[in-house]
Amino acid sequence: MGSCDPLGIPRNLNAEVVSSHNWWEIVQLPDRMMQLFEWHHEYRVIYTDGRKLPDVNAALDPKWNGYSVGRWEGDTFVVDSIGFDERTWLDKFGYPHTDEMKLQERYRRVDANTLELTMVLTDPQYYTKPFESDRKVFKLNALQFEKPWDEQIYCVPSEEQKFNRLIRDPASGK
How far lies 26's CA from each of 65, 115, 117, 119, 126, in Å? Predict the structure, then answer.
């Protein structure tokens, strides 16, 4: 059986999942930024209104994309996040995390068409020291703006039933 669970953060930001059918965009509003991910039509809110992250012991409902606040440090946009749902993975290989994971992302615009991202993940229950990602580089693809979001990637039961009928069941001999 397939799964319609969201990929979550940081997995949605890993370059290996960003492809022709899984692009994302940033929308900047006066008090927040939003990241819109085409895959499963997910979105993430990053508050930029000056608020601080809640206390670590605060009763946060875990979220697929965590609870995030952002601020500018010179030309770098820094995002700190907590409150992640531990059902998500860190990457396509299934590396786990707990709901105590903390993530810091650092975005820097290299030029008009290039965005650079590094991430530091801390989760002492699973990992002995903070993990720093490789530098990820994203290129602006202006052609994406001409293409509407693809409705074929909605994850709904009727689509899975169709897939089972056309692909999975015949392949299994049912």
Answer: 15, 11, 13, 17, 31
The residue among 91 and 151 whose pLDDT is bigger is 91
Task: Count the residues in the chain.
Answer: 174
What type of residue is 145? F
User: How many Å apart are CA 125 and CA 94, to the nearest integer?
Assistant: 16
Q: Domains (ranges, CATH) in the chain?
A: 11-149 (2.40.128)
Q: 138 has which bridge partners? A: 115
Tell me which of 109 and 160 has the higher pLDDT: 109
Cis ω before 10 (30° cut-off from 0): yes
pLDDT above 90: residue 154: no
- Cα–Cα distance between 49 and 32 in angstroms, integer? 7
**Rounded distance between C-alpha atoms, residue 24 and residue 46, angstroms:** 14
